[in-house]
Amino acid sequence: MATETPPWCRAALALALAALLGLGAGQIEAAAAQPLAPPARVAIDRPAPARAAPARLQLAVHGDLRITALDGQRDRFVDDAMAYGWRIARARPLLGGRADVHYLLTPLVDVGASAGLLGMTFAAAATSPDERLAVTWTSLAASARLHWAQGRPFVPEPRADVGVAEVVTTIHGVDQRRWATFTRVGVDWRLGVRRGGVTVALGYTLVGADRGDGPRPPLGGLDLSLGPYLRF
Amino acid sequence: MRSIVTGALALWGAACLTPPDNDIIQWSDDFEACDLCGWTTTGAVSRVTTYHPGEHALALGVGARATHPLAVDRAVSDGPNDYDSTDGNWLELSTDCAGPGALALRTVTTSADLPTPLALDLVLGSRGVGRFERHYLTVPALPPDAVRVRFVELTVATDRLPCRVDNLQLRISGGEYGY
């Protein structure tokens, strides 16, 4: 059965539709008078470009030179060595190497471990040049470094190491072992790119006092290190 | 040819300008090779370890003596000069007895026909025992009437304290270290 809408009802519906669309007669005329707007632009959500995963693990190997002449034990060692009859007793620099592994724990701190091996002859006997007082230093330390260079060149990164070292003193071919604690503070310069480069390090090593009898070679001092690093 | 001659003259001149030998060890003992090899002892004398297991010394108890033969020839004219009391010889040692001690010369009689045989007698200091120190003792003047002398033995003795002695060395001076 068909139902016919009354004419007054159609007129009311048309007025309501016009009110909803805001298209009053005046507005339609005003709009017609304005120039055409440019075509609408619709923003499309695109996926963000994939960022490279930050390198968090760093491996480094250094050649190490420790200037023991700056150790406070230097003068006492020379005096004691001469008192015991050694000749040519000097605070010679320790030479060797060091390997580091560091992990980027937070955006600003690398934590890791460091192992080193150094050695030097500190005195020779007067009667035989083959009779020497030699020291070997084998160390293991926990290390922390501020990771704030962020790719900028020549930005020093402060670093601290705390560890223990096995000190082997060899006299007349006989070894004597002892343990020493040490603290190293300094700065690293990582010169390179994100994945690798060269580290230049400068630091000072303080060694726990050895209060034993006899000449005790100076083992602390200013450290100079140079070597490559790789980051993964 | 000229350069060769010049070089030879330079070498000859350098040799002439080389100072006389100094600080030469004539005899020494660091007590490392063996257990008091060559030493004749009286009283409590032993070889002991000092500050390192590889470092040894001669330990003498109170009133102990240790004697080692020597064969060191010296001409009286080898001294740096003729007007003082030294002849350019000295004894070096490291000991924990305070003070340098006293060094004396003693004429000895030997069966061999030797030029003026002499013994060196060292009595270690008795002021106390402390850290090891190096001591230098000048050998007394050699007999002025002797042309050549021979040091035939060295005796180390203690008086009132036990002492340890290491790195004994008898040295000569060619003049630089003459007093």
List descriptors.
heterodimer; A: 232 residues; mainly beta; 8-stranded antiparallel beta barrel; 14% helix; rod-shaped; B: 179 residues; 5-stranded mixed sheet; 47% strand
Detailed description of the structure:
The complex is a heterodimer of chains A (232) and B (179). By secondary structure, chain A is mainly beta. Helix content of chain A is 14%, strand content 49%. Chain A contains three helices and nine strands; from the N terminus they run H-H-E-H-E-E-E-E-E-E-E-E. An eight-stranded antiparallel beta barrel of chain A has the order 1-3-4-5-6-7-8-9. In chain A, strand 7 and strand 8 form a beta hairpin. The longest helix of chain A is centred in the N-terminal third of the chain and has 14 residues, at 7-20. Chain A starts with 6 loop residues before the first helix and ends with a strand. The model of chain A has no long low-confidence stretch (mean pLDDT 84). Chain B is mainly beta and 179 residues long. Helices cover 9% and strands 47% of the residues of chain B. Chain B is built from one helix and eleven strands. In chain B, the strands form two sheets. In chain B, strands 1, 3, 4, 6, 9 and 11 form a six-stranded antiparallel sheet that branches. In chain B, a hairpin with a 6-residue loop joins strand 3 and strand 4. The N and C termini of chain B lie far apart (46 Å). Mean pLDDT of chain B is 82; it is low at 16-21, 80-86 and 175-179. The A-B interface holds A 80, 82-85, 125-127, 131, 169-176, 212-215 and B 25, 28, 30, 32, 50-55, 92-94, 131-134, 166-167, 169.
